[in-house]
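Why do we care about 3D structure at all? Because function follows from shape, and shape follows, mostly, from sequence. That is the central idea of this module. The next example makes it concrete: a single protein chain, its amino acid sequence, and then its structure expressed as tokens.
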Amino acid sequence: MTTYTERSDFSGKTVLVTGAGSGIGREATLGFARRGALVFAADVNSEGLNQTLVLSEALAGSVRTKQVDVSKEAQVAGLLSYIEAESGRLDVAFNNAGITGGAYRIEDYPTDDFTRVLDINLKSVFLGLKYEVPLMLRSDGGSIVNTASVAALTGPGGMSAYAASKHGVHGLTRVAAMENAARGIRVNAIAPGWTETPMVVANSQQNPAFAELARKAIPAKRGATPAEIADAAIWLSSAEASYLHGHLLVVDGGMTIGGFEI
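And the structure:
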């Protein structure tokens, strides 16, 4: 029997994943390649990209890497031109690159840091959409998934830049979905909760008491693995989600349910 991870439903498809050098992006890159795709993996971290490439070597599909700062328009435009030249098409894009930024009250938040978070988390998604949509239209449509966060639904104290950027990703996703649904392009987003990415693990080691409290507050009593979040993005990109447009898929172990246990 063919298992979920042994499917070849992305065989012959071209996929772009940003933030592919670690965490969710790396697992998505491997997941798409495992299912037969040609994956263009982009990240600003060349060392992380090389590690992703090594991990992909025995998979059914193939991975090509490119170092890109997704907050820079010229680099994003160059990335999509590279994909077009190499593959001639784009079927799936997973706009996943992002940072959390620092934790400050609004009145104390450094303006330059606020701008940097919005550039990497929000402007990058806008730029991705701007250059991905035209290439998808030339290859009979496709699917775009943007990484938002449960912070697109909540107001985590101290994280004004992060929350603003992720609310913005949600809004951009809905606009892009409205504009492109009739043109054969589906645009959706995922909203991960607490996820055990390298960045989160490093932060947790600095403040283990907070990390433990956060995990206990999740009904599932644990954080997600990066692969669990990546699987949700891959599913949203697949034909099995063919009627989803402008949807925000919350993958948070119940974090945003609200209420309390009896």
